[in-house]
Amino acid sequence: MEPVTVEKEIVKDLSFKHPVEFEQQSDIRTKLEEATRLGNGYHHKVGIIFHDDEGLKRVNTTIWATGQKYICLKGGMWIPIDHIVELKF
Questions:
Q1: How far apart are CA 2 and CA 89, in angstroms?
Q2: What pLDDT, in 10s, does the model give residues 51-77?
Q3: Is 4 helix (H, G, I), strand (E, B) or coil?
Q4: pTM value?
Q5: Residue 24 CB: number of other CB atoms within 10 A?
Q6: I want to staple 58 with a disulfide (CB 3.0 to 4.6 A). Which of 3, 11, 63, 74 is the partner?
Q7: pLDDT of 9-39, one tens digit each?
Q8: In what side-by-side order are the strands of the sheet with 46-52?
Q9: How many helices (H) and strands (E) does the chain have?
């Protein structure tokens, strides 16, 4: 299934209430930390493929912070890590 590309500004309007089952990249935590360093140090954008309550989405943006359960994008928008399928550098 192909993800729908969305602008980063609408991530705040997406819903992540329902749990999803999928195969996540095994090294997702390492890649999130690397993407955070690249975002903070070089404003490097990554493709984030994730599930929301409506289906598979993709956003191309910088990751400003990686927490235990969420990543933070510019503008205080959050995506739950357990909904992220993969990162594309």
A1: 17
A2: 999 999 999 999 999 999 999 998 889
A3: strand
A4: 0.95
A5: 15
A6: 3
A7: 999 999 999 999 999 989 999 999 999 999 9
A8: 4-5, 55-61, 46-52, 84-88
A9: 1, 7
Spell out where 19-76 has E strands. Answer: 46-52, 55-61, 63-66, 70-73
> In this structure, which amino acid lies at residue 83?
H
Q: How far is CA 5 from CA 2, 10, 29, 30, 51, in A?
A: 9, 11, 22, 24, 12
Place of tokens 């943006």: 61
- Write out the two tokens for 69: 């359960």
**How many residues belong to the chain?**
89
Residue 83: both structure tokens together: 């909904």
